Amino acid sequence: METIHTVEWMKQVAREARAQGHLTGFVPTMGALHEGHASLVRAARQQCSPVVVSIFVNPKQFGPGEDFEKYPRQMDRDCVALEQLSVEYLFVPPASEIYPNGFRTSVTVGGLSERLEGRSRPGHFRGVSTVVLKLFEIVQPRFAYFGRKDAQQTRIIRQMAADLNLDTEIVVCPIAREPDGLAMSSRNAYLQGDERHAATVLYRALDAVRREILAGERDALHLTATMRRVLDSAPLATVDYAEIVDADSLEPVVRLRGKCLALLAVFIGRTRLIDNLLVEEEGDSFRVSL
Ligand code: AMP
Question: Which residues of 210-243 are buried (b: 16+ CB within 10 A; e: fewer)?
Answer without folding.
Answer: bebbeeeebebeebbebbeebbeebebbebbebb
